[in-house]
Each structure stands twice: as structure tokens, then as C-alpha cells.
Structure prediction request, 842 residues.
Amino acid sequence: MSYECSLERMTDKIQTMSKFGDAGHGGITRYTLSPEDNMARNEFKKRMEAIGAIIEYDDVANMYATLPGSDPDAKRIVMASHTDSVKNGGNYDGILGVMSAMEVLEAVADQNIPHKHPLTAMVWTNEEGSLYPPAMMVSGIVCYDYLPEDIKGKFKYEDMMKSKSVLDGESTFQQALDATEFKGDKKNRLNQDDYKCMFEIHIEQGPILEDAGNDVGVVDCVLGMFNYRLRFYGQTVHAGTFPMDKRQDTLFGASQAICYLHEEIDKLGHPELVYTTGELVLHPNVHTCVPDYVDFSIDCRHESPELRDKVLEIVKGCADKQWAGCKCEVEKMWNRDTVYWDKTLFGYVEDAAKESGYPYQVLHSGAGHDAQFVSYMMPTTMIFVQSKDGLSHCEPEYSTPEHCTEGATVLLNAVLKADKE
Amino acid sequence: MSYECSLERMTDKIQTMSKFGDAGHGGITRYTLSPEDNMARNEFKKRMEAIGAIIEYDDVANMYATLPGSDPDAKRIVMASHTDSVKNGGNYDGILGVMSAMEVLEAVADQNIPHKHPLTAMVWTNEEGSLYPPAMMVSGIVCYDYLPEDIKGKFKYEDMMKSKSVLDGESTFQQALDATEFKGDKKNRLNQDDYKCMFEIHIEQGPILEDAGNDVGVVDCVLGMFNYRLRFYGQTVHAGTFPMDKRQDTLFGASQAICYLHEEIDKLGHPELVYTTGELVLHPNVHTCVPDYVDFSIDCRHESPELRDKVLEIVKGCADKQWAGCKCEVEKMWNRDTVYWDKTLFGYVEDAAKESGYPYQVLHSGAGHDAQFVSYMMPTTMIFVQSKDGLSHCEPEYSTPEHCTEGATVLLNAVLKADKE
Prediction:
């Protein structure tokens, strides 16, 4: 038997949550543990208390709302995502996963749906890392012992506590944690003893579902990626007084390198490969000075480690060339292998999608999510919902209430399948 | 008869002034009216009072130290430059002109050199505009009535007072002026009735003198220039989830445009033409996002208006092209014609340089200086001193004490020629 979530209730949650951090152009800025984030968290608490869920916080301000199941010895099934956003982000990234988890619990409570396992809706703290870097900070902390060695180093608790606000450059994540009413007990953290598995719903953040006319995505993996930094060293000289042929212009050099990377990587001929030079730092960044320093990021994602290696070879090769007279260094920031979701949970989601009758497809996740770190600790999987125009991390980000509700319905039925196991 | 300045006294001034705002790598950060700038200003005041000069301030905190001449009706001859610096600038840009003016007055006092006209050493406020933009702000204010119409608009007194600190984005130039002890009376401003002409010594900020083995430059003009902004509009999408062929990547587009500009402008085949893309703004500037907005500056300088127009045609043509799927807009920030110095004063400097026996040459100034605005109000000219490696606006900026003293000696003798007129 298949259950359904409520379009009306989902729409109301979307409208309500979209107010908290309204940035004025259709989206939000809702940094973790900010007053705006607290509004979203309080809304979560209020609505979950209203259906009789037990509310708990852990020491890194993750929130857990749990409806007990019929078997007192059964482990919890958790549905989790985040309430925080990037600067001028949208109303769906993260919060859709929280709202869907809430919706599942509300549907279960409203329709008295029998279930053996306790069902938990969870809010992750600081997934975006947009105020206190890095992204996925708190799932990194909570899953620390299970992470692969080369990722581990990035998420040491002590280091994370010292992460400084990108706004004031001074206040720390530790201070934000100490100040929040949502800080609780470390023993409440997501863990293997008390939890059986985790589901996360997210918007696709790309145009694949929309282009294919599908509402829901059954996600099989998170693409492997690497993130490198190319650094260019030249010489600051005066724009008006220094002859062109003697200059070492790092911005010209970096521009040449960006064009070169596009040309060479595109030659590999893999249209599903994505790579991005999204961040650039320039010194002194003054219109009357030739810049003596530029660095930029390159982020590359694909399922195949062999193809990623080929791209990496091109990236690393930049260090052997001169760019407008400038030296180039290539530095590894991090990389990760493709993470495949638990096959059993994936099957529940696919079956639930099939039974629902909604148009769906299997697809990869190009973005990282907290679920990815959790997958090292316990069985985990993800569901995607169609994103209008594939837009995300920007204010026009949009998914229809219908698609959001369909996603929640697939989640509900997949969770109930996991509950029966 | 030819007089000489003192190497010992000049060296002492250089060493003393270099302490005020010491940025730790050989240079200084000395924003206008900052505590560090006040130290330099007090040093100026102390040393000028020590030789009996009369100290005056005007309403925009310019400082004037005057040694009376033998003719009570004669107008003043002023030697002026600035004490402020860019961030992590050097120990010579600006302050060399102030120290040379001080040195001339000290030599005159020390050697009892007869002179008819009062001789004034002057400190301009906020030449760099590095804390409160724009550059040459205060000479723009003081010479306002004499400026060409299209420059005028940039330097309205009321607008300048509202200029906000680039550090805190809030405090204004007006507030800095109101707080300084160096604010005086508007009637003390440099003016046509009381002043006969102005000289300014500056470091070359380029490698031409050094490459030619010349110590001193006799400057004939400030090169005409234009400053435009190219703006690129695309779409922010997620780095991991959005296919390459649907992207509108503004940083890729801007990189292509920078490479295109170099290629096309270099085809014009004028090695003495200089152009610079020194400033770039990127949004959202996050490694996981394709940037939806980039703008960069292009600064171009050459004596010939015809050649500048040819370059401008290339720059403006960028708006007619697509750059990685992004729209481009080209916006004029400002331009200025080549400003030629007063021929008589130029002759005095050239004669003084010739008589000194120092290796010298005639050259253009590629950089803008306060002298340029003053030249619309009264006869004005400039002298350059060799810059090691042509470096400027950076901490390694360097000129030898010997070259600095030679420059001051040329200034002294040129001023005495003007005094005899």
C-alpha cells in the first residue's frame, strides 16, 4: 500500500520557510546559526512538537525530531538535510530536505501510518559553510571516525571550532555554537548504535530532470571530484609607466590559463564532465596596477577516476608553462572518490518512485551533500526533485510545490519500505 | 651659479619618513590622514619650523611651509607632492616630492641662498585616494574651477566629502578632515593670486631612466589615457550539477576577452603604448559556483589621441560579441587628454639638469600626478628620479639617496631660475 504527502501542507511549509532570511529577489540569505536560521529552526521545532515528536539537540547544534515506532528496540531511520543557505541562495537547497522530513513525519502522524522504527527528521548545522567554512562541516565532525584518511584531516573538531566568519574575519564557529539555544549533548549525535540508515531529499541543482521531463531523481552516487588551486606570481608595476614587454601580468597569465584549460579539457570529448573556475583572488586589485598575484580554483567532477586523472594531468601541466611571463604553481586542495549509495536503500527509493507513477529517472549527484559523509557511517541514499532551469545557489532557484510533494511522497514510501526490513 | 642639496640631509629624511607606516617588507602603508600620515605630516612641520618657515593649512588639510623672499610683492613658488601611499606601497612615491621640497628650503636656509619670491613646500592631502577614492582628490577640489568640464564632474566638493573608506565602507573623508589637526582655512588654498608656479618631483615609476642609464628625467607631459570597465553578465549555477554546454560562465568569458584585447591591441604595433586590466570583480566568487558576473578595468595610456581612439574601438567592440555565452557591456569611467607642462618651466628644469652634469633625458609621465590638475591653474612642471627596476606602488620601490638628492638639486636650481624671472 502506498501513502501520499500533502501538497497543501508542503506548500505552507515552503511559504513559511522562505520568509526566514528573505533576500529580496525571491531567495534567501540564511547563514548557519544566524537569527534567520534560528527562525527556520524554531519553525521546525514548533511544527515537530505539534505532532508529538521528541526534540533533541547535539553538541554541534544538529536538531532531531523523533516519532517513536512500535518496536522499542528498533533503531531510528533518519531523514536529514540543512536549513542554512549560501549568500543570496534559494528557497529549496537544503531546506527542502528538512521540509520533506517534516512532511513525512506529519503524514505519518496525520494518517496514523504504522511503523516499527522510530522516524527522525534531522537538521544538520552548517552544511553550506558559507559563513564558517568549510561546506559539510558538521557532518564531517559527526562522521569523523568513519571518513577516509585524506578527507578526515579537513574536519578536525578543534580546527572547525576555530573557523572564522567570512563576514567579520574574527568571530568563530565555536562562538556561534556557544551562543545558540540549539546546542545540546554530544551523546545525541547521529550514531551507528541508535540509527539504522539515512535518507536525504535535495533539489537536483541541475537541468537533467527538467530536460528529460522527469519529476523525481533516484540518485545512485555522488560524483568523484578534485579541487585544485592555480597560483600565478608576477610583479606589481604601475599601469601608466611600465612598458608592456617587461611586464609579468598575472591576470593576463591566469586568463590565458583559463582559456587553455577549457580548450584542452574539452578536447577530451566528455560532455558529461564538468569543471569550473569559480573563485579568483587578485592582488592588489587596483585599476592602476599590474597585478602581481592571482589564484583561481578549479573544480572538476566525473564518476570515472580515469577521466578525472586525465583532466588533472592537464591542470598540473600548467605549472610547467610560463603565463605572460608569470610562474604558475598548482596546489591540491582536496579530492574525493565517487561515493555510491547503499544498494538496498537505492532499491527502496526506485521502487517507491515506480509505484508512485511519477516520471522519474536514475541519476548521479554532481554536488556534495551531508549524506555523503554519513554514507561512511551507515547505509544512506538520496532523492532528487526537479530544479527549474537547473538553477541553484541563487535566488531564482525553484521547484514546484507539486514536485516537492512528490519527492516527499517517494521519501515516505521508501522509508516505510526500510521500516519493514 | 649652481647650488647643491645635501645627500646627508636627504638620506636622513628618507630614513625617518620610511618609518611612518612601515609595512614590514621594506615599504609602507600610509593612508591619508591616518595616524601614520600624521606622523609624516608632523615631521614635515617640525623640520620646516626648524628653518623658520611659516606653516599654514587649508580647509582640505593641505600643508604649506613658506620661506619669505626678498620681494614682499612677489608671488610664491611652490614645490608640492603628497605624504600618503597606496596599501603596501613604497618609500618614495609622493613623499620624495615632499622631501625634495623640504630639502630645497633647507638648502636655501642653510646656504643663505638669495631669492626674491617666497618659496613654499607643500603637502597635498589624499593624492592616492587609496583609503578615500578617487586618486588626486584634493588637487581636484582645489583646482576645480580650472578643470576641463568632463574631469570637473568627478571632483565636486560635496561628493568628495562623502567618499567612504574602503576599509570600513562607512566613515567618510569629511569625518577624517573634521578629525584632523591639519585642517585650516580655505583662504590658504593654493591659488593664482598668491602663487606664481608649481614644481613637483616624483620617482619615475618605470624603468626608462634606469635602462638608459640616466639619473634624472625632465618631464614634458602626462600621457593621455582612458579608463573603461567591461561588464559580463551570465548565470550562477552549481559547479557539480550543470552541464558545460548550457553554462554562461562570466569568468571564462572575461578571460577570453582579456586575451582578445591583448591580441588585438598588440596588433596595432605600438610598443610604447601601455594598457592594463588591473582590477577585477567576480560574483559570487565561490569555488562551487559558476560566476554570474565579472567586471574588469582597462586603463590605456599614450600621448596620441588617434592611437588611443584606435584602442578604444577595440575595447568598445567587445560589447558586440558573445563571451562564453555571456553578454558584455562596455562603460566609460573617464578619460583625459595628454597634458603638456609649461614650456618655460620645462626649460628651467632642462637647463638645471644640463648644468648639474647629471645624466638626464626628456621623458613623458605615464602616471597622473597632482601637478596635472594644478597645470590648469598655473604654470607647472615635473622632474623624475630613477626608479630601481621601474617598480612602484609596491614595497620594493626604491631610488638611491644619491639620485634623490640629484633630483632635489635640479629642483633647487630650476626654482632659482624661476625666481629670477
In short: Chain B has a mean pLDDT of 96. Chain B is about 35% helix and 20% strand. The domain at 224-336 of chain B is CATH 3.30.70.360 (Alpha-Beta Plaits).
